[in-house]
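Field: sequence (string)
Field: structure_tokens (string)

Example rows 1 and 2, in order.
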Amino acid sequence: MDDFCRVFYISEILEVILSNLTDDKRSLAYLAYTSKAVSGTTLDYLWANMDSFSPFVPLLPKPVQEIWDVTFNIALLPLVKCPPPAAWRRFDMYAYRVRRIRPREDYLDRALYQRLVSIRIGIDLFPRLLSLRCYLFNPLIPGMRIFPSSLRSLSLYPEYALVLDGRAELALRQAAQDAPFLEQLYIIGIYRLHPETGIGPLDFKRLHTVHLIANILRPVDLQSFSRLLSASPIMNLCISLRSSSEVSIQLDGTGVLPSTFPRVENISICDGPRRAADIVSRICSPYLASVRIEHRDRFASVSEYGRLFTLLAQRHPPVYALEVRMGRVYVNTRNEYVREFLATLEPLVHAGLVKLRVEMSMYGAWKIEEDVKKRLRPEAWPSVSYFEFVLTEASVVGSLPLAHLGDMP
């Protein structure tokens, strides 16, 4: 045996080599053919992260391969009989090695997972799977097993135009049954309350991070979402609303959310300060330490920010860190706007804020007067341990900061 080949038999060295070839599928495939002694470990790396289901299609039993055909009638899916376990042997040999699935190709590629679980009912297709992007193109059957118990990160993508039947909530309920130790949850698309399910909390035992990225979100749907997850140990919560239409979430009047998320420590809201204030006011967690607001699409008044900052200042214990990202500020009274904005921060600072970071993109930012810029300097905020204010010109794409004062660790 050549000395060069001996290094592959030292497991620690082999692991280092393979970990550096994670994104080089061709090299991993070549290495898998070099020796039986290293092929098993190499195949684990080769199949660990999959961006497409197409490599699995030749491994499927012949009667099942037809569901990959573009001409396949989805209405016939319930009539497809599941072949015996022996017919799945080749598929299972490689599916066992898969840890992450993130299909990025066409409709068929994204739809295959849901089609397969509808055929092979009650069986974990990928028994060691840790992360999954699941596209919900078809209605779900309540109680049917969809996710492996090994799953730790789940991204649900309801099909945008047709999801009005609450399949995202139904999938969420099924995930709590199938994968109770889920740690990260992402819902991207349209979230709807399922008409035939209750609203009791789900038993996710380790769910610490939740991202809800919704095109349109009604008050009743966010209320349902909050209640479903109210018993989960969520520490990091991100809510991003893309739509500015009238049917978008309105959390005032009758759209009242219950106090919820009792363990949240960090919250990020991608929307205006008015809606951010409504959401924050419902967070009952005494551990809330960090708040991040990103509002780049529409103008917000200083009074709207003032209400948000007042709510944060009234919390006990006080918020530790605040980050605000503002975009496209267009006002004729630029200096007054900045002065008033800084004034709304003072109650929060006096309450004990430790870290403060603000990004402001303003039209005519170069006209800000020097006496206002002095208020943007760290020495003007002695009680804040870490202070940073970034001011850029909105009329110039990619412009360098006109003022970048302070520094965050």
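Row 2 begins here:
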Amino acid sequence: MLFSIILTFSTILTQTISLGLLEVSLAKLSHAPKPSPSADLTLPANISRAPSNHPISAKKLKIICDDQRWGRNLKVKSCRDLFGYLRQGEELYSFAQRDSGIPHDIPLPIRTLSNDGVCFLQPVLAKDAVRGEATATEIFRAGAQILRTCIIERGMGGLAFDIGGDNNIQIIISNYNPNVKCDTTSAPGPPWDSTVNIFSAMRAGRDHIVFGYRDLENIDVGLPLTLESQDGRCELTIDIPQDAATVSSWYEIWEETTAIASMCTRWRQKGGRSRGLGAHRNIFLNLSEKSSSTLPSVVESEANVTDLVATNNVGASIFEGEYSPIDLADLEHSVPFELVSSPPTRDNTTDGLTLPGVSSADASAMTEA
């Protein structure tokens, strides 16, 4: 039922991508005058105003641009292209952390990555919220304003809040530095829906735990470990050299799994791999079409594999595999907004967690996803 709901979500979002919301070419926007580097972009003289043809609202969309928290010099083309995977629709969907036990349509974390993996859009919960509601169109328009206001005009990532729904969902656009290699052989890759099943249902907690070779003592997760999609057509293998151990988080592994799926399976219809995860950079991942047999030692040593890829929480995304090119245009006309320096309450942070290839300064203030 949940899988059907989410696939319906993706289909609905496809149908209104050409509403005429965006009218001016991106090329024109990308050559718009830039504020001087020394300008304080949060001062009144530098704040973009809502267009006069919109009524002033007490609940206007709010935008925060911050290069320390969400990256600087983001690639405009990459961030623009990820919108081809976002859909629009007016049905209200609920969001909650995947392991919270709270009923929801879309499990968090979830993100849309560009085909080159260097830019992503991610809905997150506001501080102290345990559940949020928003439509796909509200997410799309909030992201479009971040793209125009922060990335194109100011060269930095950003966050949008008060986006609509119950205002418990915030939207981030930020940079990412994947370490992904896609398969270049003639072997077919796994089906996209099968990879979605894995990265949308696997554990994604941010706690630092010990991953190590399965024969070692004092480890939290024994490796190698293979996670299989519910349809049996895709598998993710998490491995480490023999007798090695390292500290990492399921969130770090989830991020890179999502990157492999987006860069290799969605875009190239191939499997892929990643290396260099964990504190010692010795965890490696392989996402592929399921082989004829799964490592028997993994099945024997991990009785709770179905807990890692939960059978009742499958297939979640605000995007789908089919790309629909769009021309982002005069984004300030999509919804009234204002640029502010901070949210009304500080968003959740993840101090101490450094994402793969991202500096600790960038990662330490990332909003909780």
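free_text_note (row 2): Confidence is low (pLDDT under 50) at residues 1-58, 294-316, 346-369.
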